[in-house]
Amino acid sequence: MKKQLICIACPMGCHLEIDIDDDYKVTGNKCKKGIEYGKKELINPTRIITSTVVIKGGIYKRLPVKTDGEISKKLIFEVMKELNNISVVSPVKCGDIIIKNVCDTSVNIVASRSM
Amino acid sequence: MDKYDVVIIGGGSAGLAAALEINKNTKSKILLLERDAELGGILLQCIHNGFGLKVFKEELTGPEYAERFVDELNEKGIEYKLNSMVIKLHPDKRIEYVNVEEGFVTIQAKAVILTMGCYERSSGSIGIPGNRPSGVMTAGTAQKYLNIDGYLVGKNVFILGSGDIGLIMARRLVLEGANVLGVAEVLPFSGGLKRNIVQCLDDYDIPLYLSHTVTEIIGKNKIEKIILSEVKDFVPIPGTEKEFIVDALLLSIGLIPENGLSEDCGIILDPKTKGAIVNESYQTNIDGIFACGNVLHVHDLVDFVTEESRRAGRAVVKYLTNNLDTIEDSIDIIPGEGISYIVPQKINPKNITDKIELFLRVKKEYQDVVFEVKSGEKVIKTIKKRHLAPAEMEQVVLSSKLLETLNIKDSISVEVIQ
Fold this sequence. Notes:
The complex is a heterodimer.
Chain A: E1 2-6, E2 15-19, E3 25-27, H1 32-43, E4 46-47, E5 50-56, E6 62-67, E7 71-72, H2 76-84, E8 87-89, E9 97-99, E10 109-111
Parallel strand pairs in A: 5-8
Antiparallel strand pairs in A: 1-2, 2-3, 4-7, 5-6, 6-10, 9-10
Chain B: E1 2-9, H1 13-25, E2 30-33, E3 49-51, E4 60-61, H2 62-76, E5 79-81, E6 85-89, E7 94-99, E8 103-114, E9 118-120, E10 136-138, H3 139-149, E11 156-160, H4 164-175, E12 179-185, H5 194-201, E13 208-210, E14 212-218, E15 225-232, E16 235-236, E17 242-245, E18 248-251, E19 255-257, H6 260-265, E20 289-291, H7 302-320, E21 331-335, E22 339-343, E23 346-347, E24 355-362, E25 366-375, E26 378-388, E27 394-399, H8 400-404, E28 412-417
Parallel strand pairs in B: 1-2, 1-8, 2-5, 8-20, 10-18, 11-12, 11-18, 12-13, 21-28
Antiparallel strand pairs in B: 3-4, 6-7, 7-8, 9-19, 14-15, 15-16, 15-17, 21-23, 22-24, 24-27, 25-26, 25-28
Helix pairs in contact in B: 1-2, 1-7, 4-5
């Protein structure tokens, strides 16, 4: 069976075709990221999550954060719940770990700006 | 009156990159003017990732991308002023700005770079019939409320327009617990990047209504309902109305380069891009006034803004050192069949050392076509294209070797051949 996907590994948006019967062989990709994405998207799709957490004493009330790696799509809303329960105090530096090993994914939540 | 070599108006991605590029190549006295309380521009509220793949070879969020440039600017000691609003630009490159500390200030520049970015098209520009209740706002406004200030604009939200900000906001709202009932696009194709359709709408089962638009807004003080209708050639089809109960309607219906200052100064705009008409050096019709970034034409990726602004910065360095050829003889660049615009709009081959990149957008989606580049009636280059979409900016590269062989009186055109 062949499946068509649009690669989201970068903003190019390559039109991929993945042959599931041929060990998930990917065609239509312009770089090797497409091969990795096409296979993973059909087996275990993952995403980077970006959001904000409450910050006290900063120029604004919200600090932007992100996962420092991809997490399983199924865990997105669990991670969001964790982010709602956290509050940090300024100063924070870009890259500082806000939550270590979020939801046992071995991925951290890090600050995506200094504030 | 303070004098500067270069004054850059706008401290977003374009202004930052141009300032750093000039600083790298000269000891010019630079001033960057920013009206907001921080440098970084719209990147600061674009907390999603996807920035920097070309420029840094890694995937960053908007604030991270901005911070790298701002840190470097501080390191290099380039002068900037925050909370400073430019109110007038004169053709002789005098600039008037205001801020709380200094009041009203006039300065003189040798060169000016316009990097004011864009503003969003709002409800007034599309004239939706019905009431004018609260709860109708642009997607970028909702993005600022949510990502900077921490306010959710609604629990049941509909989004009109499938531009990238609207798609990104659909996902953000769902992640924060809102219900996004749908995204409507009046055209038969989306105005956003393909990857955003996949990872913002498909991932969260948000329906995309192509060839649909909002035909009525209902609500006394606060928005209560919208009516969605299918359209054919932009005309609503009677009998296709659907009702949605909403407490917010976001508009993601396009960006317009913010050129009030430029127009007052006498800079000629391209009616298609709504940005200045520029040459290969990003110089406008006024000597010594340059433009780059989203104030010139709307880009899909900030990486392209950075690269363009670096090129503009290098051209300004040439201008300041009298190495820019300013003879009037330029080749006009004309969008042909299927092309909506090309930037730059004219090129002087004398100022092109290696190659020139033309940036263009197509009018509609195409599969397996060819770009045909012509000088007058002569075909000088063809480029195969598997997939083209208006949402994706395309590039055509012409080498200086090729340009040398052309008759300067013949305009260059690019068209889509099916």
